[in-house]
Amino acid sequence: MTETVATPPLTVMTVNIHKGFTTFNRKFILPELRDAVRKVGADLVFLQEVMGTIETKGRTGHDHPDTPHAEFMADEIWPQFAYGRNMVYPKGHHGNAVMSKFPIVHYQNHDVSIAGPEKRGLLHCVIAVPGQASEVHAICVHLGLAESHREQQLDLLCQMVRSEVPDDAPLIVAGDFNDWRRRAAAVLEREVGLREVFVAAYGESARTFPARFPILSLDRIFVRNASVHLPVVLPRKPWSHLSDHAPLVAEIHL
User: Fold this and answer.
1) DSSP code of 122?
2) Fewer C-beta neighbours within 10 Å, C or N terminus of the chain?
3) Residue of 205, 233, 235, 221 whose CA lies nearest to 44
4) 169 DSSP assignment
């Protein structure tokens, strides 16, 4: 008789890091932010507004690392990370990133930008979790500010899930949905069976913005073929100093 070994739960975190700056770009605090994220001890971290490369020559007052910010954040703690470039400008670019303590066997960034200056993406990672028969699919999301754009981007997300994620595979979708009208949960549950973890646990989405006094529900964690234990919004100290979005954390059981 073969004994079945349960897969330990995954701690998942999502946060918009605002390119490593405090609110209104007053101070560059990426090293402090890295320390705070490390203390959470998450197995998977979903990051939005992450700098890929930046031209630091001639810049003063900001101690930017020499490496891309996803690599700097992941250093020594998360052996695997993936970055998806969304916005490109003359002196650099930024996008979404996923940091993982487990092997990322494949990743692809999907451009879901709608006509206009906003550039948005969906970063899809396939992760091999020890003891888990099926690969875990993780999608890091950053949707647009306009509701009409978000509606189209949610449709693109659903199309991607249908075409790229097996029906029986564990799926985690997290990030900055900019969904202040709380429309995404109903769409994603109806179309592709994703459940919003705070709605499932507490009956409503978590308020995450602005981090100092959260009023709007912008950030989300969704799961399929998984269950969740006690999702939390991280406290204002130190996070209101480190990001304009309050981070979300959840324990995911596969």
Assistant:
1) E
2) N
3) 221
4) S
CB 82 within 8 A of CB 104: yes
Q: Determine whether 177 is exposed, middle or buried from the number of CB atoms within 10 Å of its CB (0-12, 13-18, 19+).
A: buried
107 within a domain of the structure (yes/no)? yes
φ and ψ at residue 218, rounded to 5 degrees: -105, -30
- Any residues with CB less than 8 A from the CB of 159 and at least 6 apart, and which? none
What is the number of domains present in the chain? 1
Query: Is 41 inside any structural domain?
Result: yes
pTM > 0.85: yes or no: yes
- CATH code (residue 218): 3.60.10.10
C-alpha dihedral sign at 36, 125, 93, 78? positive
**Domain membership flag for residue 66:** yes
Amino acid at residue number 50 = V
Reported as a single tens digit per residue, the pLDDT across 8-47 is 899 999 999 877 665 655 678 788 989 999 999 999 999 9
Residue for token pair 């879901």: 112
- 194 to each of 63, 118, 188, how far by Cα in Å? 40, 26, 5
